[in-house]
Amino acid sequence: MQGVHRSTKRLAPMKTGKSTAGDTKARILDATEKLFIEVGYEATSLRQVTSRAMVNLAAVNYHFGSKDIMMQAVLGRRLGPLNARRLALLDACEAHWPGHRIRCEHVMGALFVPALQMARNSAVGGPSFLRLLGRVHADTSPFIQSYLMEHCATVYKRFFDAFSRALPEQPRHELGWRLQFSLKALAGVLASDDISNLMSAFAQGRPLSDAHMLAQLTAMVMAALRVPAPGSEQRASLQSVFDLDDANEAMQRAQAQGRETAAAAAIAAANAVANADAGHRAEAAAAKPRQGARAARNEGTARAAIASVPVRAREPAVTFPSNPLDDWMRMRART
Prior knowledge:
This protein is mainly alpha-helical. Among the domains are: about 15-65, Orthogonal Bundle (Arc Repressor Mutant, subunit A); about 75-230, Tetracycline Repressor, domain 2 (Orthogonal Bundle). Helices cover about 75% and strands about 0% of the residues. The protein has helices spanning about 20-40, 45-55, 55-65, 65-95, 105-120, 130-140, 140-165, 170-190, 195-205, 210-225, 230-285, 295-310, 325-335. The protein is elongated.
């Protein structure tokens, strides 16, 4: 019998209404992006995406095939244009302020100005764009970290070299971990809010430009990059706090051991009292005179006899009051 041939070509999902394949794909990407911002990569599921995008699972499989490919498309459509704009602006800054004339603020501006501009434009980023960047850099899932290493390593190296020229007093290894720490802290702030709320928080009812807001955001980052390395006095001060904590822990352990010792002593005293009482009872039982074997047998026989008597036989006789006339006749006969 001739075998049934099964095609390996994926079937397109059935279209409904006037929705096109491009619209469906965009809805899926938008839904995935919003879920990723809200809950991160690991907690984003295909079931949630289909529910948010109002499509079936066949549509997701048709356009992407897997969750990883779908997430790569989400990140690629945002981070790709962003990194291109960042590198172009960094090139312009380095040309305008060559060599060590470039300042830390210039490099920080080249890193964040394109992100702010894209957040202002709904066609390429929109209001949630900064939150997306914050989530990307704060997400610890292996997939996101691998994607950043693969697609953003060149950009990171260019900006690290620029920061090194702007901060020649900092050793490269010191600058590296400071950048990682401070930029991740800033990413956490961006992931928790959107640009409108940030503007409102910084403005406090006053007009505030993007440059002013960026200065507010990056001030602490640049302070962390520029602060000198800690000296011996700072290390000694912190070491004294560690020593004080050790002393407090030792005192608490000693107090706890003292309480345990007191509790053990109380338990031992209670046990001694109980043992003494048990000894007294044993001595009293030993001092009690013993019955002879015959007396014990007689006592047992008497108890058995009493127990064998019928209940009615053991009941006391019932007496009735005497007749007064009979008593008078008996007394007269005696006289």
